[in-house]
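tool=predict chain=A
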Amino acid sequence: MTPDIAQAIALNSAAFILAEDALRDRFMALSGVDADEIRARIEDNAFLASVLEFLVGFEPDLVACAETIGEKPESLVTAWRTLGGGQGQEW
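tool=predict ok
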């Protein structure tokens, strides 16, 4: 997967998270970011990897996001790894 495709998947995943009130609130609480920081970092690969890591960490959210954005869950995991997520971790 190319970095551009990984970024597109991550951006679509971020839109999915932000569109769901409960999911958005949980993401913001767990990550410690606020709306201003999301806007400031939305094009940062490390931030986009954290968006995908949030989804990878809870399979029901991963599957729901993948279905909504028209991707396979495995594609989100691959995008996460392409953006630098999971380095040094066994998943």
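The two ends are 18 Å apart (CA to CA). Helices lie at 3-19, 21-31, 35-41, 45-56, 59-69, 73-82.
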